[in-house]
Amino acid sequence: MRKSTLLCIAVLLLFQIAPGEAYVLTPDVSLSLSGEYNDNLFLRNTDRESDFITRLSPGIRFSLHSMRSTLQLAYSPDLNYYSSHTDLSNIAHKVFARGSFALSERMNLTIEDTFLLSEETGDLVTLSVTGPLRERREWRVNTLESRIAYRTGGAVTCLLRAAYSDYDRKGTGLSEVKTYRGTGEISYAVSERSTLSVYTRHIKYDYRPGSDAYSQEYTLGISHKLTRTLRLEAQGGVLLSRMEEDGSREAGFSGGGLLSKRFGKGSALLSFQQTIIAGVDDGEPLRTRTIDLTLSRPLSPRWTASFSGSYGTFKSIRDTRVDTGAFRLTPSVAYTLTPRTDIALSYRYLTTHDRIADARDYRVHTATLSLRWNYSAGQQASFPFPMIQEK
């Protein structure tokens, strides 16, 4: 685990302590056993190799609540055993920490840290900010973000964000990519249905080995509630980028849109975004255009179906090293056996098309059957914070 993750946890604990205030500690434990079939372990165009993976995933989460703050800490290792390629058997580690603190009646602070150490492609394709993957490697991903929201007495809300991301790949070639982000936002509630926003974002991409890159975004946004269950959001503006190595500059459009719908206990989300990300598999800043669709709906009191799909294009902004399209499709269905246990079946299809070299195209089919159990202690662990320190 990175030092930044440990530091984040320590800072959250310090923020959480307030003498004389009562706290509620809620422990949650979970256990998942799954079997997965993957028909392209190494993301190859030809000579594809398949295997059956047995995965055991215990997890634990602690939530600490008070009148003015909430702290969450979760850890979940994945023990992956490969039936044929036993040398690929590994343990993936996932850590998450979040703290939310009411500094005053109008100001709120949130700090989050996410850590992932894994070589499973299923863990990495869910990270939409990484760009297309070209090979199987062990990745270490760490993201730290802080947010301060301030609400004036009227309809204006100010939001400041600072984020740090670190991607490290095991092996030769690219070893590390660091990203620093600073974001400012001012929102004005025009009415109960509509909100106008102004955004500015500054990003530095620190590549190793390679050149640094900088980008600035200035956008305007609107959020409008069309009906009681249907919301539309849109934003657009200019994106300015500069490469440190050759001093080249580029200006373009940055923005996107989001349409969300709630129906009963289900939901649907359709979004589009165009921006620049850090392409961690090539060490290149990439201009991306992505469209995502997510659906989730209960079919009955016990059955729940969900679906997600996305298509994105990724292209280098300074050369022709990367020009790739990627498509992902993930339907799943879950059945509730008991209030604490469910069984789920999911399928994932991933395909990429490299417009520069067809030999780098690949597709992956993955099917997973999992049995999951979870338990929450609820309000049973309520006691003053000093007692927690003594235990």
Automatic annotation (TrEMBL):
Highest taxon listed in the record's lineage: Bacteria
Signal peptide from the UniProt entry: 1-22
Keywords from the UniProt entry: Signal
Protein's name according to its UniProt entry: Uncharacterized protein
